[in-house]
Design a protein that fits this description.
The chain is α/β, with parallel strands linked by helices. It is built from 7 helices and 11 strands.
Amino acid sequence: MIPWVQLDSAKTPDGGQELRLKRRGTEFSIMLGTNELMNSRLSGSEEALASLSCEKIAGRKQPKILIGGLGMGFTLRAALAELGGDASITVAELVPAVVAWARGPMAEIFKNCLDDPRVTILEAEVGHIISSDQSAWDAILLDVDNGPEGIVHKGNDALYGATGLGAARAALKPGGVLAVWSQGPDSGFARRLKQAGFAVEEVNTRANGKRGARHVIWIATNGK
């Protein structure tokens, strides 16, 4: 068995915890303590986050997409594959080291997608971007933390409360989509989405095709 090797580490935004980038052969892992946040072999649910969202906005001209969380780029690459050349995708990543890892040790995984002319990377909190413009986005995709229950950065919790969901709805164009990835089900969050005025679909998906851990994606459509 090839051993894991730690390549780098970075503090979480509150400075209280540490993200660690590890590699074993061609496999990468990002850890928070004993929790594995993502693994390069498990991309199915992150890709589904993009494909389900793009399906909802298919046919729109010059679609604008906001992705919260760069991760290992699975959602970004899947969105690029679904969208045409007139699309624009903004990725908000709060931890600068994650962007550096994407351009450095994990460049082989990202396959130059950060250099696609449709892509803009912002080292910023996605909630601030959401709050800055109204009716700006065709889709907002959130793969931030572990979903509605944050473990990396407690500031992420604000995205998933009533105020954050209201801001997301205001930031979407009519018929736009808020898509949220989660490690597991959360009936309270589904209820808050409906209370915020979204039409909600809850999709169960797997981390690796038809296998692996079960994850949840909420597709919330703005009916205004």
